[in-house]
Amino acid sequence: MMQVAEAAHEAMLYEKEYVVQSYARPDFVLTHGVGITLFDATGKNYQDWVAGIAVNALGYGDPGIASAMQQQLATGIIHLSNLYHSEPHARLAKKLVENSFADRVFFSNSGTEANEGAIKFARKVAYAAGATHKTEIVAFSHAFHGRTMGALTLTPKDKYQQPFKPLLPGVTIAEYNDIDSARAAINDNTAAVFIEPIQGEGGVHIATTEFLQALRALCDQHHALLVFDEIQCGMGRTGKLWAHEHSGVTPDIMTLAKPLAAGLPIGAILVTQKVADAIKPGDHGSTFAGGLLVTHVAGYAFDKINQPEFLAHVADTGEYLQERLSEINSPLIQEVRGRGLMVGLEMTIDVNPIVKAGYEHGLLLVNAGTNVIRFVPPLIATKADVDTLIDRLTLILEQVANA
């Protein structure tokens, strides 16, 4: 244990000396995990309500993930590039298409790459149709679509955008869940409308069915593409395979990433045949996307999540989580909202002290903006895990309120 602790201390020193300081990490090193519990180098355990920011859908130590990785490693091939055919990425594409609105899939390495690709695809569809004037994009208040230049332009947070301006031209930000605002923003120059059916970093806000229906109608009216960013809210997170299933509204493009390979880096752009027909060889590409190891593991994760009993568990546990959070008697709590295991706890204060106090009490928590705690645990979390969370969180809120 002493050697592990020394190695961890050394790792923190190296991070401070050699890693670009774009993250503010707490002073411990996580070393291993099981279920929804992580352990640091001192042996302390933490119940994980972050899941790598909604990534580790199957938690830690899932034997099927290890088996899938070993199966692919046994072939001796980790990477080929997209110059050649390979089996895992084609099989994963088939699973995604057969279980969604889509006809085709393009793989990427991350969510922000998926959104960048979706921007390009939307513009290419317009270009291919001879509508070269249709270059504009509409996104919404409190959105988060990524940190690369195009995706960053669709993420209207001054703290993220200001140092990197000028950004992509032709982007309009309308008000989330405001049909009149959307109607004023979408016109015949609009190539695409991007929206998260449930916003993640923006505060766990749910788009109403009426709003999504209105966006679908407006996009059809103006021959624009409707893009659903389900990078955080998709793949079983809400108790259905896709978050937009709750509304019955389907998009022309859907972007995926975080949980798709249960911890390995992947992104995907799901499109209708109309969109796919506009994309020709050379229009877009990626060296690492659709790699054999990642897509083989993603195929296993998809099959495990896409089971009625698994999705029912997520819905049931998520409902219980909201009930138990609503029972906490704290003057700091303003609202509980969410769907499935994507829940926001809006507070009357900055939640950073609560997140920090969580480390003392063995909880990993993450914010969604300044005053919202976001609960996006592994989808295998149980009601007993929720009870443990509530006990610890109640003590934390008492501690913070009395500070």
What are the main properties of this structure?
single chain; 403 residues; alpha/beta; Aspartate Aminotransferase, domain 1; Aspartate Aminotransferase, domain 2; seven-stranded mixed beta sheet; four-stranded mixed beta sheet; 14 helices; 15 strands; globular
Q: Which structural class should the secondary elements be placed in?
A: alpha/beta
Question: What is the N-to-C succession of helices and strands?
Answer: HEEEHHHEHEHHEHEHEEEHHHEEHEEEH
Low-confidence stretches: none
Gyration radius, to the nearest Å?
21 Å
Return the average pLDDT rounded to an integer. Answer: 97
Strand content: 15-25%
Please bin the fraction of helical residues.
25-40%
Give the count of helical stretches: 14
CATH topology of the largest domain: Aspartate Aminotransferase, domain 2
Query: Order of strands across the biggest sheet?
Result: 4-10-9-8-7-5-6
Using the 3D structure, state the CATH architecture of the largest domain: 3-Layer(aba) Sandwich
Number of strands: 15
